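Q: How would the structure tokens look for this protein?
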Amino acid sequence: MDYVILSNDQVMFNVGFSPAIVVPVSGVITGSAQALSNGLMACVTGDEASVQVPGVAYTSGAFATPGVGLVTILALGGDQQAQQGKSGGRPFILKGSTFQAQLQVLAPAINPASGVPDPVPLYFGSGQFITTNTVFKAA
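A: Here is the predicted structure in token form.
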């Protein structure tokens, strides 16, 4: 049993998107489940796509002049999808441990010595949910 993620819960991304480093960022998730807890909609699989944090500054190795990207959830962790609790046929999203995240480069970081832009379009990292839910659980 673990806590179900609710609409407006915090999504915290880790700073390491190896080898890139991002400024610490957070976002919020929007739930679409039919189930409610304290007036907030619960989150079900697919709602992780609602998390998009634009304008995230990053650097990577010699590319020390910051670039900008969009951080999103790439995939939920295995312990973040309810096996039994569902709403509308979709499993609830659980607090769990960590999810996989990605940084999509929108404006590349620059190597200040050469002026060359970072050629990598995507970096991968992780994050976790911070929930206000202390009651509603699913397995």
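The CA atoms of residues 10 and 28 lie 5 Å apart.

Residues 2-138 form one domain.

Upvote if useful.
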